[in-house]
Every structure is written in C-alpha cells, then in structure tokens.
Design goal:
This protein is about 35% helix and about 15% strand. With about 425 residues, the chain is α/β, with parallel strands linked by helices. The protein folds into three domains: about 45 residues, no CATH class; about 200 residues, Spore Coat Polysaccharide Biosynthesis Protein SpsA, Chain A, CATH 3.90.550; about 120 residues, no CATH class. It has an eight-stranded mixed β-sheet with strand order 3-2-1-4-8-7-9-6, with helices on both faces. Strand 1, helix 3 and strand 2 form a beta-alpha-beta unit. Helix 4 packs across helix 11, helix 5 packs antiparallel against helix 7 and helix 7 crosses helix 8. The N and C termini lie far apart (about 65 Å).
C-alpha cells in the first residue's frame, strides 16, 4: 500500500469515527471532514514553493452587452479584496480603448488592465467564432514579458467575485472533486479548474502556469475549429488530453445552476445560516465581516426567478439594457441617465413560507442585483461628472420574457439633459437603446 493510499484510508476512518459519534450531521460534512484530514496529512508532501504569482484574465467582444459584465468583474474583485493583476482582453473593437474606459477600469480595480486585440474575433458571433481561445493565443504571442512560471487564471466576464480567487490554500480550503496529484496542484503539465457537468468535468476558472498555456492554447484553437455553440469548453478538454495536461478539479470555485456543484451550493447554504449571509438584508454581495467560506464566483449563466408574497423578482443577463444581440446605439444600463436596478425587499429570504430552493434563488437574485448596483454607482461616479440617475428603478418583468419596466422615480431622478424618451425606450419593454 502506497503512502497516499494509507493517508486516504486514515482520513476516511477518522472522519467516519467522528461522524459516528455525532460530531456533526450530514453527508456534506462527512465529505468536507475526509478532505480536511486528508489534506492535513498530504499538505506536508506538497511543493512548499508552489507558485503564487497569479494573473487573472477574461475575454469579451466589443458589445455593450458584455461591457457592463466586464466592469462588474473589476468592481466585484475589488469588493472581496482581490489584489492580483486582472487583464480584460477585448476583441473586435473598431478603435483602441478610450481614455474613459481606461480610467474607469483603474477606478474600479487599481490592478486592472484593458487590452484591445486585433484578430481575436471571427465572423459576427464571438462565441461561434471561437473568440476566447483566439484572443488568448494573441495575448500569449504578444506578451513575451510574462514569465512562464506565472500562473494564469482564465475566468469569464459573467462571473461575479464572491470571495478572493486563491491558489495558495487549495490543500486547506479547497473542495476537491477530482485530484490527480498530491505533489503540486500546479505545474507545466498540471492545472486547476472548477467542476462542471460536461467536458471531462472541466470549466472556468481554468488555472495553469503560462508555460502550460503556451502548450495548450494552440491545440485548443485547433480542437474547436468549425464547431458550434459551447465548443470552446468541449475543445479545451480535448486539447488538455492531447497536451497530456491534467487538471485538478475543485467544487468551491463557483456556483451556477441549481443542479451543479452541490458542494459549492453547500457553502452558500451554510452562509445563509448567518445574518451576514443574507445579502438581501445586508445589500452587500460576497464575503463580509462575520461571513467566510463562500464560493469564489457566482457564474451568471441562466435566468433566475422567485415569486413570493413580497412580489416577483428575476434576473436575466440577456435583457440587461441594451440586451443580448439587440441593436445598440448607446451603452444602455451604463449610461448616466439610466437608473440602477430595483432591489428586492430586505426580508425576501426570511419571508413566511419561502422554501429552501426559494432561498437560494432569492440569494442569487439579490447577489447579482446588489453587485451590479455597486458597480454602476462606482462606474458612474467616474464617468458622469454632471451626475447620474441614482433611482433603483429598473426592474425585470417576471416571467422573464425579455421585457423590463421602470418604477416610480426613474424619470424624476434623471440628470439634466437626459433624453427621457430614450430612457423609456431603453428601460421599458424589450430594450431599444
């Protein structure tokens, strides 16, 4: 029996013993306890010089639809205390980044960078054109100064930071789903990723030293050539096999749909046991004083709704003005004249009769809304010298059918010079911005 097998067996036996005598109840606890005992023994064998030089990266096209998401990546990162460089790669813009964009990034996140790329987009659809791996290849080809040992974490623009992204505490705080090595979680041929239901379990964030990315990215572009929607996630799994790169997969990096990462949702459920975890009441998304252990990201993929006696609430990233694939003449929700999002009542999660599933839905909606309002306030303080519309009055209609409406106060709070007709078109019904 190898040492690692002996250590794992000891971990299981210790956890079972503690569980049997009633230390705590529940399968989720048992899983976490096995991991804790295991890592306490294995951590000593890990490389004590594991690389912690971390650089985060995300890619978007040049649409206004992805623009507000990008600014929220920076704002939410600052809110949780992230302090590593984050680079926004923007593909397909007709001109270089404006001074206003650069200043906004710096104001939202002092360690943020914006790079406009040529050649990262193919065709009219960024995703079908394989925009992310193409942009990453350009970045690697033109960023010769970035050291091969630097750890590069590829995240997505529709992710909201709930806690710091860390790679130095995986042994002690991570929730492993599938781990391939006990020597070092990160090396040229070993990476780390979140757990997803497709693609050999791999999904963003993808974390790998630059040396490994230089090997993987050309194969990633090759594997996805000519394929359809979602092909980039399938293709990176294929490329990893061809490059002989193993990914250690963890459950704590993100929550997304209700059926994914049950261990990650377990962290949210635990947080909701504390008053500090009730984001509807605190109006602050992510980690707060007295609250620890949230997943790293909320990955805002699908729409969410909740219908209660306190009203119907919902959020879909696709209908945030100016809307997904809608005609865009302006920046929609980022414009100084547009109001902030309407906020659910502070008692939404404690209302009589709300189910456990309803609490999770309400937690997501409040997390997204309060995170976005924080970003909008900070962004508009930077770019709107004559003032901005501070009314929390933009509400999505439930059921979510691509329509919104403006609550009382939206028009009255518009700054001087706002085109009210435009604001109503942009904020009411199907966005026309």
């Amino acid at each position: 029996m190898t040492n690692n097998v002996k250590i794992y067996a000891l971990a299981v036996l210790t956890a079972l013993a503690e569980f049997a005598v009633g230390t705590e109840k529940g399968n989720s606890f048992l899983t976490r306890r096995i991991h804790k005992v295991l890592t306490q023994n294995v951590v000593a064998s890990e490389d004590s010089h594991q690389q912690t030089d971390l650089h985060l990266l995300f890619v978007t096209d040049c649409s206004a639809h992805q623009r507000w998401m990008a600014f929220n990546v920076f704002n939410s990162a600052r809110e949780v205390g992230q302090n590593d460089p984050i680079t926004w790669l923007r593909s397909g813009c007709k001109s270089e980044a404006s001074r206003q964009d650069l200043d906004a990034v710096a104001a939202l996140y002092p360690h943020g960078h914006l790079m406009d790329l040529n050649g990262g987009k193919s065709g009219s659809d960024f995703n079908l054109g394989f925009g992310v791996p193409k942009a990453l290849q350009i970045f690697l080809d033109t960023s010769n100064s970035i050291a091969n040992h630097t750890v590069l974490a590829l995240i997505e623009a529709d992710m909201i930071f709930l806690s710091r992204l860390r790679i130095d505490d995986l042994s002690t705080a991570g929730l492993p789903w599938e781990v391939h090595t006990s020597n070092s979680f990160l090396s040229e041929n070993t990476g780390v990723s979140a757990h997803y239901l497709c693609c050999d379990g791999l999904g963003p964030p993808y974390i790998l030293p630059v040396q490994g990315w230089r090997k993987l990215t050309p194969l990633w572009n090759k594997a996805g050539a000519g394929k359809g929607w979602g092909a980039d996630q399938e293709a990176i799994a294929e490329a990893a096999k061809e490059a002989a790169i193993n990914f250690n997969i963890f459950d704590h990096f993100m929550v997304s749909s209700p059926s994914t990462t049950p261990a990650g949702w377990g962290l949210v459920e635990e947080a909701l046991q504390s008053p500090a975890g009730d984001v509807c009441a605190t109006k602050k998304a992510g980690v707060q004083p007295g609250l620890r252990g949230l997943p790293t990201f909320m990955h805002v993929v699908e729409p969410w709704t909740l219908e209660t006696k306190l009203g119907s609430w919902g959020f879909s990233k696709y209908q945030v003005p100016p809307g997904w694939k809608r005609p865009q003449q302006t920046d929609g929700v980022l414009e100084c004249g547009m109001p902030l999002f309407a906020e659910p009542p502070t008692s939404l999660l404690t209302g009589h009769g709300i189910t456990d599933a309803g609490k999770l839905s309400g937690w997501v909606i409040c997390t997204v809304v309060h995170s976005l309002n924080s970003m909008l306030v900070n962004y508009k303080k930077q770019v709107c010298p004559s003032g901005f519309n501070s009314a929390r009055a933009l509400k999505m209609n439930v059921p979510l059918k691509w329509t919104n409406h403006l609550l009382e106060g939206a028009v009255e709070s518009a700054p001087n010079g706002t085109d009210i007709n435009w604001m109503v078109r942009c904020g009411e019904e199907v966005p026309d911005c």
